[in-house]
Amino acid sequence: FDAEGNFLATWNAGEDLYMTGMTADRSGTVYIIRIDTVEKYNGMTGEFLGSVDLPGGQRTYFETAATGPDGSVYLVADDRLVRLDNSGNMVLDIADPFANIPDFATTQNDAAIDGAGNIYVLGSETIYKLNSQGQFVDQIGSKGEAEDQFFTSPRSIAVDGKGRIFVDDFWGIKVFEGNGRYLTTIDSPGVSFDMVITDENDLLVMDRNSNEVRKYQLNQ
Questions:
Q1: Residue 141 in this model has a pLDDT that exceeds 90
Q2: CA spacing 20 to 30 A to 173: which of 98, 150, 162, 216?
């Protein structure tokens, strides 16, 4: 689809291959995780552009993919963190990046990257913030009914150009500063599959209940 929601093309990346995660960079390259491999495709044509074997083999279950502003691709499993540069070279590989986090449970299949390279990974009841080298920095939010807490397990996350963090929750989309300070909640019906912020500072939300993409214009 284009930026106005008009249909452009459709393509198939293979019916017999299990896809566990997907992301796209600003040039339109699509990255698809196949458990222990990430494949690259031209987003408009579906042309296969190559693949990269991920460390850990099938014992490491990568489910989360995210792209940074510089085109780097981040791939996250509960016991592994990998970063590829925009040429597909592996430049970071960390085993057990969450090992020293108290009460760590599991990740929730989504992550976002800010302009400084900080990595925000959804947990079952919180957000784990890692620096650009994959070192744990902080936790943001917790389970509860306060305005800065998550009523249910958050399912999607996005970060805008100002470093604000947007997290889908039962009561709407909660917004935090990069340091974890709660800012506001955006009213949003349903529960999202995923969220992304465009270069025009629009928040796109894929609603799993209505099967539609909603667009929100964010304050500058």
A1: no
A2: 98
